[in-house]
Amino acid sequence: MVKEGNGTSQTSSKKSVVIVGGSFSGLAALHELESYGQFEVILIDQREYFEYTPGVLRLFCDPRLFEKMARSLKPPTNGRVLHGKVIDIKNNKISYVSAGGESTHTIGFDYVITATGSTYAHPITASLEESTLGDRQKSWINAHKELQSSKRIIVLGGGAVGVELAAEIVDYFPEKRVTIVDANSTLVPLFSKTTQDYAHNWLSQRSVDLCLGRAIKTWDEKSCEFIDGTILHADLVYLCFGGKANSSYMSSDKHDRQKRIVVNEELQVKGTNIFACGDVSSPPTEGRSQAFHAEVQGIVAARNVIRRETTGAKDMLKYPADICGSQLMPLVYVLSLGRYDGVLCFNQLILTGPLSAVFKWILEYTKVLHMEGKMLGKLIWNFGDSAVLFLSRNLIYPPK
Known about the structure:
The protein is an alpha/beta fold. It has helices at 24-34, 66-69, 133-148, 160-172, 193-205, 291-310, 321-324, 354-371, 375-394; strands spanning 2-5, 8-11, 15-20, 39-45, 49-51, 70-72, 79-90, 93-98, 104-108, 111-114, 118-119, 152-156, 177-182, 209-212, 216-219, 223-226, 231-233, 236-239, 244-245, 261-262, 274-276, 281-282, 332-336, 342-346, 349-352.
């Protein structure tokens, strides 16, 4: 395999697998491929670190926790890490702009697993300029200072992101006036009614204004305007909806209407050696935006790359049936409501209260270890994932 960059070339006898994106699904694929010596594994990410994204909303209120939620990306034992933003994938070559934007590089590949996820408004999602741990930490410190100096806050979006952010703010700063605005008539509409009611009551008891069922026309950093012309003013506005798939490097004919990359049941882009997983992908069977689902997809994509080299394309795994024994993936989430409360859901089993907050802390601590490649994290999560799939298949069934 020949890899090119800045006019130089390098030959390797191993097949190359390029993983684009170093978060949940990308790192799951990397760990799966790391023990398979036949491949050279190359991870490309525009940042030199990963964040535990389900926990970052708390950093608005306590940026000191950043060091517990972020780690440097380490090269795989059978490969390397490249820092930059991928801008094009075609003809078995990937082009990327190096971190800082100084130069463009091109490398060849035998397989690609793209796991670039989706983007929310800054600082929930890091900007291109925040490529180092130091830069990202400064950004969270600045976001915290901005929140501290604000008395009235508008949170646009009543989904999981908006609800968790509003809950963090009133938990840390109960004196602040927080308003959630959403065109939907209920909070967290993709979750169960038990979760919706618990979140609604929790926020109402803490004097959060719930402006639901009203569509907005425009917004800026200090206000939002409703369709009827009413304007709501604040010191600070957070945009917590409209996550966009990071798929601009793929041609538009490979996108669905939400600009996610269309893949088949094997998570493969039709007619290519490209696999896509996580929030950026659009599988035909199941596509919930959840970290657990993203990781399982990363594992499936990696195993299918291995199978193509060992047993042939006819023996590839289908997602999710061949990984969990069902067409329905488990529904697993923890909705945080401040530091000491929340809702834990595993399929049709729902637990509310402080125990869910303890469970989320355990998830966060062990998952960071897992993503970092630590043995303890791997052991815990390999067992945990297997247990979740077993229970979902045999005892606690997913909601239909």
